[in-house]
Amino acid sequence: MLSEDGTVSLEDLPDQFFEKKMPVKESFGGSSLKEVRMQAEKELILEVLQMQQCKTKETAEHLGISERQLFNKLKEYEIDLKKLKMKQKEK
DSSP assignment of 14-29, as one string? Predict the structure, then answer.
């Protein structure tokens, strides 16, 4: 809402704008930015691997990284490609 002169004052803002919010770190379970990023990256890799039927070349291309980088990420996040392939065959 704009006032007559086209500016917004504190009085114009809704009450919820001033409510205390939980600190970001607490809303992510106390995780650091690095931990949140790593978890999101791992989940994305797993999702794309499933979508690409565990084909590493296609997965790497979809993620915009080299296949070597993908293998490094699999090792870093302890993702067992053989187990994933076996799970997909069971489906």
Answer: -GGGGS----HHHHTT
